[in-house]
Amino acid sequence: MKVAVIGTGYVGLVTAATFSFLGHEISCLDVNAERIERLNKGEIPIYEPGLAELFELSAKNGTKPVFTTKAQQAIEGAEFIFIAVGTPPKDNGEADLSYLESAAKTIGTYLSDGAIVINKSTVPVGSGNWVRMLVEKGVAERAAAQNQSLAGFAQSLTKAHPVTFTVASNPEFLREGSAIFDTLYPDRIVIGTDDSKTRDRLEDLYKSLKEQKFKEPSFCKRPEGFGEVPMISTDITSAEMIKYSANAFLAMKISFANQIANICDLVGADVTEVMHGIGSDSRIGNKFLSAGIGWGGSCFGKDVQAIIKIAQEYDYEPELLKATTDVNYKQRELVVKRLQSELKILKGKRIGLLGLAFKPNTDDMRDAPSIDIARALIKMGAEVRAIDPIATENAKRIAPEIHYSSSLEELVSGLDALVLVTEWDAYKELDMKSVLSKMNGNIFIDGRNQYDPSALKALGFNYIGMGRH
Ligand code: NAD
Ligand code: UGA
């Protein structure tokens, strides 16, 4: 089937790679010419494990996607048009829908009769109808332009029926760093539409994924016992709400773990033990209960803010969601407070950050806790050094005031305190004896609770975990 993907960021590229791997004909549109040029050279502009390999498999199977900045080339003739443009937060917390608006108008200009426009971007409730209206406007403007030319007028007379289309919502649940795995082996696929034919066609597009009728790639194995993927069909509004609610719930789970961690600190309990203890209850589940310096990334913060804004528009104060956000950002401040309480005066102190990305296995620096922590320390006069296996170049663009170390040795030498910010595999099993021997001080803040407190204390570290000692 012919599929167009609008936007070649994390979601757009993973969607394109997956559908082309499953044998569909894909065209990708982006307004960022540099990005498209790189894609056409075979370069992958983001770091996402398995993405390049999946594109390679598609190329071998003869279904390599077309990457273009030309809307007509991407959209005309496509049966399915996925929107995967960014919906970043505005200063007031609402979702900025300007990219979505522009994408919808462009689609209206070029879409073919019978196409389905599917929204994969995370959008406020009600956006489905708005997208339909914008696409309709594009279609109407095109018809008017055609009618203005004589040839077009003649053509319109012979036209049997106008361009028809439907709009659906298909929220995306992938996680950066494991996006290919999450997309090939999803927990569920949600389709929001009010039209049964649209639902049937989308179910058909997803059939091989749903039934898992594809040869698993060697670099992304199917989990043992993984069966058919549940398909959740609902209306557009509920689908839009499912996406925000899923992110809000996950963010809340982490904030809950962090709040309990802070109480564990007061009473002398170990939050990792506590979370293991509660997570074993199948009603609670053991995922997303890792306490630490909290969540970051492009979505939890913006989506929780956006759903808060939606509720407030209806004059409802979503207290739980507001607390979820407050608890999260206070975890970043806690790291600074702990350093201050140990080092007293931060001015002139050298502090090293292990990891910059908001989570391991990504180069994404959006809302990364590392930046807030570094900036607060720098403001207090500390020298902040940092290292990351992949995200350094992106971090440099956001925070040039940080000293970026090119090796672990350079990072740790003469440090007063070291903070584990991102639990990359490489930073989980460091030779801590050697690290300590190069440091000036002995403070280690384990922002992700990755190390054994007693082992580090035995080495001579002043170990400070997040809810464990
Ligand atoms: P991104 O910023 O990485 O990519 C968006 C791309 O869209 C950019 O390359 C941009 O140039 C392009 N674009 C903007 N306007 C365009 C237009 N009019 N026409 C064509 N291209 C255009 O964004 P992302 O992280 O992939 O997120 C996309 C959406 O998916 C967001 O709504 C996000 O909330 C949601 N989402 C993201 C993730 C994730 O892990 N990143 C997961 C689930 C859902
Ligand atoms: C998250 C969701 O997990 C995806 O389902 C969703 O599609 C996506 O947002 C989105 O809408 O963009 P992502 O942000 O890529 O995915 O990564 P996560 O693995 O969810 O991690 C988010 C943040 O939470 C990271 O900073 C991570 O370190 C933190 N985290 C995660 C914790 O602090 N504790 C945990 O137990 C789990």
Reconstruct the topology from this structure:
Blueprint: E1 2-6, H1 10-21, E2 25-29, H2 33-40, H3 51-60, E3 66-68, H4 71-75, E4 80-83, H5 98-110, E5 115-119, H6 127-148, H7 150-158, E6 165-169, H8 179-184, E7 189-192, H9 196-205, H10 207-210, E8 231-234, H11 236-267, H12 271-279, H13 300-313, H14 319-343, E9 350-354, H15 369-379, E10 383-387, H16 392-398, E11 403-404, H17 408-412, E12 417-420, H18 425-428, H19 432-438, E13 443-446, H20 453-459, E14 462-465
Parallel strand pairs: 1-2, 1-4, 2-3, 4-5, 5-6, 7-8, 9-10, 9-12, 10-11, 12-13, 13-14
Bound molecules: nicotinamide-adenine-dinucleotide and uridine-5'-diphosphate-glucuronic acid (UGA).
The site of uridine-5'-diphosphate-glucuronic acid has 22 residues, from helix 11.
